[in-house]
Design a protein that fits this description.
2 domains, 7-stranded mixed β-sheet, two-stranded parallel sheet, globular
Length: about 280
C-alpha cells in the first residue's frame, strides 16, 4: 500500500482496527476505500478536523483496482496519481481554514457514489453498528488531535451528527439574506461547526467563505473557548458574557436585530427647477 509524505504512525492502532473491521463485513469490503485521519500537511496534531458524511466514490477511484483502499495517516491510495476533483477539494479546505494542518475524517468511513448507494450497502445510518464503530474511532481521533474545531461542510449533516455525538447547540449565524450559514455546536468543550457546503454547486459565495473563515479564526485553541471582544459598556459586556455561549448568543441576537431593523424611508429630493419656479411665483404675487 502506497505511503505518502504526510504519513505518521500516531494512530496506527486505530487505522489497523478499521482495516480489521472492514475485513469482517462483506458490505464494507464492497466499498472502494475508507477515510480516517488523512493529513493534508506534515504535522503531529491537527489544528482542524474536517468531516463529511462519507468519502465519495468516482470513476477515477474505481479505475484503481483492488482494495478496499484507504486514505489514512498511514496510507494514501492515490499517492502520486491524484485526481483533479480531490486536489480541488484539498485546496478549498486549505483556503478556507488558512492552514494545511488539517486531518480529514468522515462520519461514516467507507466510500460510496452517493447517499442512497451507501444506505443500500450498509443499511440505515441511524442506529447502525457501523456508525457506532466510526463514532468510537472518531472520538479517539479528536482526543489525540485536540483540534481548534471540528468543521463539517454541509448543514444536512447536522441531524445525524447531533444525535450520534450528543452535541449541544451554541449559536446560529445567518448569511446576508438571513439563510443559515453557520451552526455552532459543542461537545466536551470542543466546537463542532457546521457550515453551508463549500461548493459552488450550492451557491457558495466568496463573501460567505470570508465569514466562515473569520468565524473559525475566532475560535481559540483552549478548550474551544471563543476569543471575542464584546463592545465596551454593553449589557452583555457588563454581564460578563465573554464565554463561548454568551458571546456567540450575543452576536447572534445582534445580527438578528440588524436584519430585522426597519429601513428608513428615503424622501425624494426636491428638484431644483421646482424650487426656482415656486420662488418666482411668490415674487409675482
Amino acid at each position: 500500500m502506497p505511503s505518502y509524505p504526510n504519513a505518521r504512525p500516531d494512530l496506527r492502532t486505530e487505522v489497523e482496527r478499521i482495516r480489521a473491521y472492514t475485513a469482517l463485513h462483506a458490505a464494507l469490503r464492497a466499498c472502494h476505500h475508507f477515510c480516517f485521519d488523512f493529513r493534508l500537511g506534515a504535522f503531529h496534531r491537527a489544528t482542524y478536523i474536517v468531516m463529511g458524511l462519507n468519502p465519495g466514490e468516482t470513476d477515477d477511484d474505481r479505475a484503481i483496482a483492488g482494495g478496499p483502499h484507504e486514505e489514512s495517516s498511514l496510507v494514501d491510495y492515490r499517492a502520486g496519481r491524484d485526481s483533479a476533483s480531490r486536489a480541488r477539494w484539498f485546496n478549498t479546505c486549505r483556503n478556507i481554514l488558512s492552514t494545511d494542518q488539517i486531518a480529514l475524517s468522515e462520519l461514516c468511513f467507507w466510500s460510496s457514489a452517493n447517499l442512497p448507494a451507501l444506505v443500500e450497502r450498509i443499511g440505515p445510518l441511524e442506529g447502525s453498528p457501523h456508525m457506532a464503530f466510526c463514532r468510537e474511532l472518531n472520538e479517539r481521533l479528536i482526543a489525540f488531535h485536540r483540534p481548534r474545531a471540528i468543521v463539517l461542510p454541509g448543514l444536512q449533516l447536522l441531524p445525524l451528527a447531533e444525535g450520534l455525538y450528543g452535541l449541544k447547540h451554541v449559536a446560529s449565524i445567518p448569511n446576508a439574506k438571513g439563510h443559515r450559514l453557520i451552526e455552532h455546536f459543542e461537545r466536551d468543550g470542543t466546537p463542532w461547526v457546521f457550515t453551508k457546503h463549500w461548493s459552488g454547486a450550492f451557491g457558495f459565495s466568496e463573501t460567505e467563505k470570508g465569514v466562515i473563515r473569520d468565524y473559525l479564526h475566532r475560535l481559540g485553541a483552549d478548550a474551544g473557548r471563543v476569543r471575542m471582544t464584546l463592545p465596551l459598556g454593553t449589557g452583555a459586556g457588563r454581564a460578563g458574557l465573554d464565554t463561548t455561549e454568551g458571546a456567540l448568543r450575543f452576536w447572534s441576537i445582534l445580527f438578528g436585530l440588524l436584519r430585522s431593523r426597519p429601513r428608513k424611508r428615503r424622501e425624494k429630493p426636491v428638484r431644483r427647477t421646482k424650487v426656482i419656479a415656486k420662488n418666482r411665483q411668490r415674487r409675482r404675487t
